[in-house]
Design goal:
It contains eleven helices and five strands, in the order E-H-E-H-E-H-E-H-E-H-H-H-H-H-H-H. Helix 9 packs across helix 10. The chain is globular and about 50 Å long.
Length: 234
């Protein structure tokens, strides 16, 4: 049985997509220093990122939002809709960038600031590859709340509810609301007095019923469908 500190037998395969060679080089130096991470390719345009994801089957794509020949948002959308299992981390300059939210909507699993600390970058790649957690949930939550507050009140309240919501059990609905708060599996287990294994089963069923890629998509979905409502702006 492997522990958290053991090196997995299969490294996490990472594709770097950014039009700045120096930034790609910096990320490569950081990530290649980890025994469980492997850089499998580099892309300098959105179109190249889509093609290399299909060719190389990376586990994680680090995707700049602003690139020539199809920006990172369009590339993310194409990769997500292709059925690829690759998880995408959007790279952005500002944490409340509208592109960051568009990236999450398009199917990204997380976003990171380009000046992220090396250990933060490494942790983000591992967490997103595991599919179990939301990276920087409080930041993601703030981004989503800012976006939702920017919508006209009519658009927030009159959108027809998604019919897929009716397929959730009352407990699954409660778990979805808690996921949208940014709670980890351990925190969900403590809140509902359930084992983490049971929580994982609930999360898997929620994602399947709502046809969502991962937990971050569940958070986006919860905000878009007014399952959670942002508090007042600070």
């Amino acid at each position: 049985m492997t522990t958290q500190h053991d090196t997995p037998t299969t490294p996490i395969r990472v594709l770097l997509a950014d039009d700045q060679p120096l930034l790609r080089m910096g990320f490569r130096l950081i990530l290649e220093g980890e025994p469980d991470l492997e850089i499998v390719g580099e892309a300098s345009t959105g179109a190249e990122a889509v093609r290399l994801t299909a060719d190389l089957s990376p586990d994680v794509v680090l995707m700049d939002v602003r690139m020539p020949q199809g920006d990172g948002i369009e590339a993310t959308r194409r990769i997500a809709s292709s059925g690829s299992s690759a998880r995408i981390i959007i790279l952005t300059t500002f944490d409340l960038d509208e592109y960051a939210f568009a990236g999450l909507q398009a199917g990204a699993s997380a976003f990171l600031l380009k000046d992220v600390a090396p250990e933060g970058l490494v942790q983000a790649v591992r967490v997103v590859a595991s599919g179990d957690a939301v990276v920087a949930p409080r930041v993601t939550q703030r981004l989503l709340e800012t976006y939702v507050r920017s919508l006209p009140p009519v658009q927030r309240t009159t959108a027809a509810p998604d019919r897929r919501l009716a397929e959730l059990t009352p407990r699954e609905r409660e778990v979805l609301e808690a996921i949208a708060e940014g709670l980890s599996n351990a925190e969900l287990a403590a809140r509902f007095f359930l084992s983490e294994a049971t929580i994982k089963t609930h999360v898997r069923r929620i994602l399947t019923k709502l046809d969502l890629r991962d937990r971050v998509q569940a958070v986006v979905y919860a905000y878009e469908n007014a399952i959670v409502v942002p508090g007042p702006a600070h």
